Structure formats: structure tokens, C-alpha cells
Amino acid sequence: MAVTLYDVASEAGVSISTVSRTLSAPERVAPSTRARVRAAVEMLGYQPNRAASLLRSGRTGVIGMVVPDLENPYFAGIVKGVQARARLAGSVSLIVDSDEKPQEEVALVRLLIQQTDGIVLCAPRALDNDMSLLSRVPVVLVNQVWRDVPSITIDHSTGMLRAVEHLRALGHRALAYVGGPEHSRSDADRRDGLRRAQELYSDLTITSLGNFPPQVAGGEAAADLAAASGATGVLAFNDLVAIGLLRRLARRGLRVPEDISVVGTDDTLVAQLATPQLTTLHVDLAQLGKVAVELLLDLIARGPAAAPGSPSPAIREPLDLVVRASTGMAPASSASHTTS
Amino acid sequence: MAVTLYDVASEAGVSISTVSRTLSAPERVAPSTRARVRAAVEMLGYQPNRAASLLRSGRTGVIGMVVPDLENPYFAGIVKGVQARARLAGSVSLIVDSDEKPQEEVALVRLLIQQTDGIVLCAPRALDNDMSLLSRVPVVLVNQVWRDVPSITIDHSTGMLRAVEHLRALGHRALAYVGGPEHSRSDADRRDGLRRAQELYSDLTITSLGNFPPQVAGGEAAADLAAASGATGVLAFNDLVAIGLLRRLARRGLRVPEDISVVGTDDTLVAQLATPQLTTLHVDLAQLGKVAVELLLDLIARGPAAAPGSPSPAIREPLDLVVRASTGMAPASSASHTTS
DNA sequence: ATGAAAGCGCTAACAA
DNA sequence: TTGTTAGCGCTTTCAT
Is the Cβ–Cβ distance between A73 and A268 less than 8 Å? Predict the structure, then answer.
């Protein structure tokens, strides 16, 4: 059915090894033979069978990526960076969505690893279970850290600190944080930043609000709690949550930023579409993806028997505060703005 | 290194064929053997090698998907539908982004087809070139039609008609359409709807505006042209373009909807985040993806030698008008609202 | 009900 | 420089 090496070989009057060599190491074939083989390849429209090649050599030229939710613009941004960098290296990238399901993540890694050279595992929630798989396979973690698996994370801790300082400079003293998914590493990181802020500025009251889904609905669900906490400044897990806050607050008749200031995280597309436009923490998502791929290519090149001694890189990307319209001076009567 | 069929076989004291059978057709092995094999599989943590299996059987259990831009919420929505439906069928889906590059699309289809059972090709721009490949391989087109390749498209034509009728009912007589990418099938479809509207309602003046990139920037670029055309109602290629219009119009001091009404298309997440919230045409993106997969599974099941006689399904999904705040009554002095 | 054996298409020693 | 050959791990007849 399909054209194979044998067809090309007989067409060109050489052996299959010569054809194979012409394709993978042209310099090791005589120019005249090379030309003849190439002509045959062209003529028959030969396409190498990747399954066979993979089975034999173990190399695929494909980089895998697992993300929790492709529809989330945050992950979409990282994906773009990964795709661009992979293409530059001559690899394609295969992206799969775990639908925010921890069990899926492990299953997908297991599946993907068989048809790729390595995997960028983005913000995995599953951790303890079968994650030991990760040490045995070329994997780079994004927004997550586990044992000595190479990783790239965002310095949300310092980011939060900057956001808190911004709000404090505007006169806010009572703050609230609307947290994200339970096992999210970046959520823990943000809370750590809050802790640092609390230590530095003892005049602040920072309320941490439970775990909310990292979507608009999460923000809507958290808005009333945030308001009831007496906070005049609210920090959100991400931009979508911030927009949920904005929306519910507006429906309650609370004005942003006059009554309450809101800070998002990530500076995704939607931050600028919100009303008012969101003050948020900017992340260079594409850069994140790019670095992840570079780490991965490195890991692959070092071979499967990566020296256990060499420390796995754990890169941290910074976060920059972008001030827009959702933050402003704290209301004058801030102190009396307590729970009902 | 990895656990193979042989390891499991010797552990269970059977032959490799029996192990293979236990895994793919359990009812054809004796219950007692089956149990023994399963225990061995469990114990050794056996994972079938997909490359070998693919090489031998030709089946992968993987569905491929090529989209122009993963970061576009529109395609992300379709992707989610595809992933969900594929999972239901026991397949995973591998998504790749062509970065809006037509050449990439063909190359990616070629690459993907080797590691998948079939492909959902989403809104391809490339058409004439090497597309003949598509007739030889299980492919379903989304938002595109080519020869007799099965396809699912959105009835943008009728959608546009509904949007025009909505604006006309509000008193608008001068309309403008901000078009999308040059070879976009759906753009042609929308223009067809405009044509139908023009025929039905001869009191309308509909101006078609050139090709703009389907992003916020495209809308910003088109806004001044739309305003200069004297139109009081503007139809946008998609929601992002509509938001670009909104933004530029606001900067020009034109009020929406008091001075100009704007209608988006697609009803993506951003439509509700815009200010004012967008009147738009709602598409059930997930449904689109779901149907595409069903079409594809059907095609795969029918085997490679699909009867050339059987008509390939060409499904059309409807579009529903969602009225929000970006459309309103035409300004009273509409007639005198001309260029300059 | 189970096993033996023949490849799927390719790569990579090794020989010539 | 080129050809020969031995598998990679699995599925699938065909025997038993």
C-alpha cells in the first residue's frame, strides 16, 4: 500500500541501507548515488514510516505536552511558546488536555512518552501517586516542582509581594486573597508571598480565602466572601477569577476601584478586556514555554542515563506588576468597612 | 529496559500470543489463564509499546487534530469538544497548532496521519496545493469544504442574515461588514449571507470591508473604515474583531450602541467580558468538535476503502443570535451620518 | 484454548 | 562507499 524503503531502493537500484543513509546522513553517501536515491524518493513520494523508525531507534522528533485545560488562555499562551521553540528545533509538539483531571495526567504522560522524545508537563495536580514515573523519563515540569525533576516555575511569591506593596502604597490595610485549586503549586507559592508580605508589613491584615476553581465562576463564588472579610483590596488567583470578582462585585453595587481594588494574575488577553481593565501581574507565557522546551531538549540530549549527580535545573521566571484601572486609593473609611 | 510481552509471558508461564490475546480479546482465553496473565501484567507494570503495535496493526487509538491557532478561544472551544468525544470513544486526541501557516497544515497532516487513526482538520487555509492527500486518508474538515471530504461547517450565511435582520429591526439601514482572512471559507459564507440579506431587503446599504486579521488588532484597524462608511451597524468577522472595533470606536469618542451598533460572531468567552457586552452569534463549539469526531470515527470504521459512491456527509450547524448590549436603536439622524 | 512463527518498516552494527 | 543482516515489540494467521 504505502511506499517503503524497499520500493525506493529497487527504484534507485541500491540497497535499503543506502536509502536510509541518504535520508539521515547524506554526507556518507556518494553524491551520484545520493542524487539517484533522492530522485526515486521524489518520484515515488516516499514518506518514512514513523512507527517503524520509532520502534527501531527510539527517537521521534516529537515533543509532548500535557496541560490541564487548553481553553484557559493562560495555558494556551504557554503552549504557543512550546510549539514555537519546538519547531525551531525541528520537532513538532503534540498537545493534550487532561481536562483538569489528575488521574488523566499520569495516564497521558504514560501514553505520550511512547510516541515522543520527552514531555513538558504543565501545572500537574497529581503528585504523589504514580509520579515516580517522572524520574525515569525525560520530563520538564512547568509551574510545579517534584523531587529533582527539572522545572520552570513562576516566582508568584515575589509577584504577590509586589502586588501587596502596590495596594499598601494606595492605603489599603485589609487585604484578601482568593485562592486557586487545592494542590496547585503556584497557589502555595502565592500564599508564601502573602506570608512574606505579612512579615514585612505588620500593619496589614491579610485574609486567605479557601480553594476556588480558577475560572470566572470561582471569582463570582468568592466575591461575597471577599467583601464580607472587610478587605478593600483583593488579590485573585488569576485574571479569570479577578473578572469573576469584578462581575459579582458590580452586581452587588460595589464600585471598583472606588470601594474595592482588585488585582489579577497572569495578564492574559482578558485582563485588558475587563471593565475596568485589570491591574495584574504579567508573565511572559511564551518565554515560559520556550525555556521549558530548552530544558527538555537538554535533558534528552544528555541521554536516558542522566547523571544523578548533576543538579536538575529549577528555573524561576519573574513576574511584573502592570497597573491598570482596577486598583485605586483605599476608601477613606477603610477602617470601619467591616463585616456587616 | 521496558517490560515487554515476553517478560509477562514468561512470568505467567504462557506464550506471548496468549498475553496479547488476554489484552485485546479476553473472551478468547480461559478464565484461569486470563487471571494469571492479568496478575503478571499487574505485577510487572507492563505497558504495551504503541509503536510496535501500530507498526503491526495499523491502529493507534489516537485521533489527530490540526488547528490554526490554539490561543484563539474559538478553536480552543472546538478542541475541547473533540477531546471530550474522543475520550468517550477510548481514544486520545493529539492537537497541533499550525500557527496560521498554510504550509504547516499540510505538513502536519502528513506527520500526524502516521501516528493517528484519522484527523480533524480545523479551518484549513491551504487548499489547492497538496490537499489531494486528504482524499486518501481519514480526514474530517471543520469550517471548510473540499471536494467530497466529510465536513462540518457552521451556517454563517444564515447567521449573518439573522444579525442583519436584527439590526434592520432596530432601524439601521446602512451596515458594514468587517471581513476576515482571505481564504477563509467562513468569511465567504458570511458574505454570502450578506448577499442574501441584500436581496431580501433592498432598503439596506451593506458595505463589505477588506480582509482583516481575525484578532483584536484587526478590529482596531477596521474601525475607522467602518465609521467612515457611514454605517450605523457593524458586523464583525468574530468576537475579537468586534472587541477591536469597540475599543477603537470608544477612543474616537463614538458611543456603542448609541452612535454605532456592533455585532460579533462566535459568542466566545470574551463576548461577555467586553464593554458593552457583545451582541453576537452563538455557536456550540463543543458540539462542533463532537460531531467532527463522530464523523471521523465513522469514516475510520468504514475502512480505508470507503465506498466512493456513498455521499460524504456535509453537516451544517446553526448559529443563534444572542442579544446583549452592543446593539441598539439606530441614531435618529442616521441618514445624514455620512463620510467626512 | 493455546502456541509457533512470520513479518510490519526501519536502523545500525558489521562486512565487504 | 555500499550491502547484508539482525532484530525493535507486537499482532495475527495457522497449527496443534
Answer: yes
Which residues of chain B are within 8 Å of residue A251 when distances are taken between CB atoms? none
Q: Which residues pair with A279 in a beta bridge?
A: A263
Length A52 CA → D3 C1' (Å):
21
DSSP class per residue in A263-298: E-SB--HHHHHSSSPPBEEE--HHHHHHHHHHHHHH
A34, containing H or E segment: helix A31-44
Kindly identify which residue of chain B lies nearest to residue A108, measuring between CA atoms.
B92
For residue A236, CA distances in Å to A125, A208, A217, A281, B308 come to: 19, 10, 13, 10, 56
pLDDT at B338: 43
- Kindly determine whether residue B49 and residue A96, on different chains, have CB atoms separated by under 8 Å: no
Smallest CA-to-CA distance from B298 within B311, B285, B287 is with: B311
Q: Compute the distance between CA of residue B187 and CA of residue B209 in angstroms, rounded to an integer.
A: 11
Q: Nearest 5°: CA angle at A93, between A120 and A99?
A: 60
In this prediction, residue A235 carries a pLDDT of 98
* B220: closest CA of chain A, how far (Å): 14
Confidence of residue A92 (pLDDT cuts 50, 70, 90): confident
**Residue B279 has what DSSP assignment?**
B
- In angstroms, the first-to-last Cα distance of chain B is 76
Name all domains of chain B by residue range, CATH numbers in brackets.
1-48 (1.10.260.40), 49-154+285-316 (3.40.50.2300), 156-282+323-337 (3.40.50.2300)
Task: State the 10-residue block means of pLDDT for chain B, 340 residues long.
Answer: 86 90 87 88 87 86 90 89 88 85 83 86 74 80 88 96 98 97 88 97 96 93 96 96 94 95 93 90 94 92 60 87 96 55
Residue A82 reports pLDDT greater than 70: yes
Q: What is the pLDDT of residue B222?
A: 97
Write out the H or E segment, with its range, that includes residue B118. strand B118-122
* pLDDT value of residue B88: 85
Q: Which of A65, A67, A71, A88 to mutate to test the interface with B (most CBs of B within 10 A)?
A: A71
